User: Which sequence fits this backbone?
C-alpha cells in the first residue's frame, strides 16, 4: 500500500501533456520471485521510476519495456523466466527459479481505465477490499483494444461490456473464489470460438491499521516504524500527554473518550500500552467488542493473566475466539530489549498474524517462502 500511495503521489504531480508515463504491474508469479502479484513500478519517459517489480534485477529491462509502451501508446505483457539456464534471458543469473509476467500500461489522463486513477479512487474511499480486473491476454479480435485496461469490479454489471454471458458468469465465479482465498491471481477463460481471454483478478486490501492505547515513550519508535512500513496508525491518549513528534508520525491522535469514533475493522490491530494495569483492564473489554483481529497487551504474561482473571471474576466472559485474538505478552520472541527492538517484535507479530504465519525462522519453514496455488 505504501508503494501504491507513493506512485499515486508522483502521478498527481505530473503534467502528462509534458511528461509521459507507464505503469508496470506484476500479474503472474510462479515459482520463486522477490515480488508477488500486484507489485508495481511507475516509469516516466525521462527514465525516472518509482516502486519495483523485483529486487532490482529486472527493473533495468522493465524501464525499457515501459518506455516502449509509452512510445507505442499500447499495453504489452512481458514474461521473465529464470527457470532456464539461458544466457539471453534477463535475470537468468539470479538463481530464483521463477517466472513472472509484467503488464506495461501507458497512462492517459482522465482515461476511465487508467489504472493509477482507479487506484487513487480506491484510496479515497472507506477502508474495504477492492476487486480490480486487468485484461492481460486474448486472441479474440473484439477484445484486443481492451488489453491492459483495468476495471473496478463491484458486480457483474461492471463487466457487461464483455457481452458473453458465460464468460461473465465464469469470471464472477472466479472472483468469488479469489475473495474466499483472500489472494490475487490471473485466470484464463475459454471462449466459444476457440479463443481465450486472460484476466488478472486483484484484491486490493486496506493497509493494516494499528491502534495504540497509551502515551509512554515506547509509542514513539513503534509509530515511526509503522510509518516506515506504510501502515495506518492511531494513538489513543490524552492529547496533552502525547509527545509532539507523535503528531507528525501518527495518522491520528484521539482522546480516550473518542475511541468509539475510530474505524476499527478486520484489518486492525489494537495494542494496550498504557503501562497501567487498571487502565489496560478497563480498556480490554472495550477493545474486545470491536472487529479488531489482533489485540496485544504489553508486559509480562502474569500481568495479562491477572487482568483476565480479575475480569472473569467480575463476570466478563472470554470465548475461545477472544483468546485467539489476544496476544499477551505481545510480540515475537526475538530477545528484544530496547523500545526500538520491542517495536520491531510487535510489528513482526502483527504482520505474521495477518499473513496467517507462525512467525518462526524461514529456515524451519517447510516448502516455499510464499504460498502458491
Assistant:
Amino acid at each position: 500500500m505504501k508503494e501504491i500511495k507513493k506512485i499515486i503521489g508522483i502521478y498527481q504531480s505530473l503534467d502528462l501533456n509534458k511528461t509521459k508515463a507507464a505503469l508496470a504491474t506484476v500479474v503472474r508469479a510462479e515459482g520463486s520471485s522477490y515480488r508477488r502479484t500486484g507489485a508495481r513500478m511507475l516509469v516516466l519517459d525521462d527514465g525516472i521510476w518509482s516502486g519495483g517489480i523485483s529486487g532490482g534485477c529486472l527493473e533495468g529491462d522493465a524501464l525499457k519495456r515501459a518506455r516502449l509502451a509509452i512510445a507505442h501508446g499500447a499495453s504489452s505483457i512481458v514474461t521473465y523466466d529464470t527457470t532456464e539456464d539461458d544466457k539471453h534471458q534477463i535475470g537468468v543469473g539470479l538463481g530464483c527459479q521463477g517466472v513472472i509476467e509484467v503488464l506495461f500500461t501507458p497512462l492517459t489522463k482522465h482515461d476511465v481505465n487508467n489504472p493509477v486513477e482507479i487506484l487513487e479512487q480506491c484510496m479515497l474511499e472507506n477502508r474495504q477490499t477492492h476487486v480490480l480486473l486487468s485484461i492481460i491476454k486474448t486472441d479474440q479480435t473484439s477484445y484486443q483494444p481492451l488489453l491492459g485496461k483495468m476495471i473496478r469490479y463491484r458486480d457483474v454489471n461492471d463487466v457487461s461490456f464483455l457481452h458473453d454471458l458465460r464468460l461473465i458468469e465464469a469470471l464472477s465465479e472466479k472472483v468469488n473464489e479469489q475473495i474466499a482465498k483472500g489472494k490475487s491471481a490471473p485466470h484464463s477463460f475459454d471462449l466459444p470460438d476457440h479463443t481465450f481471454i486472460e484476466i488478472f483478478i486483484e484484491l486490493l486490501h486496506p493497509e493494516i491499521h494499528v491502534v495504540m492505547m497509551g502515551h509512554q515513550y515506547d509509542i514513539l519508535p513503534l509509530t515511526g516504524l509503522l510509518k516506515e512500513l506504510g501502515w495506518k496508525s492511531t494513538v489513543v491518549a490524552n492529547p496533552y500527554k502525547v509527545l509532539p513528534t507523535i503528531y507528525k508520525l501518527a495518522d491520528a491522535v484521539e482522546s480516550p473518550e473518542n475511541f468509539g469514533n475510530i474505524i476499527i475493522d478486520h484489518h486492525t490491530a489494537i495494542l494496550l500500552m498504557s503501562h497501567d494495569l487498571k487502565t489496560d483492564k478497563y480498556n480490554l473489554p472495550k477493545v474486545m467488542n470491536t472487529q479488531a483481529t489482533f489485540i496485544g497487551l504489553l508486559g509480562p504474561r502474569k500481568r495479562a493473566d491477572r487482568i483476565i482473571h480479575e475480569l472473569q471474576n467480575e463476570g466478563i466472559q472470554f470465548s475461545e475466539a477472544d483468546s485467539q485474538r489476544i496476544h499477551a505478552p505481545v510480540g515475537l520472541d526475538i530477545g528484544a530489549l530496547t523500545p526500538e527492538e520491542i517495536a520491531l517484535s510487535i510489528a513482526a507479530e502483527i504482520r505474521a498474524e495477518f499473513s496467517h504465519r507462525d512467525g518462526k525462522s524461514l529456515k524451519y519453514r517447510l516448502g516455499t517462502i510464499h504460498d502458491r496455488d
User: Anything to note?
Assistant: The chain has a mean pLDDT of 87.
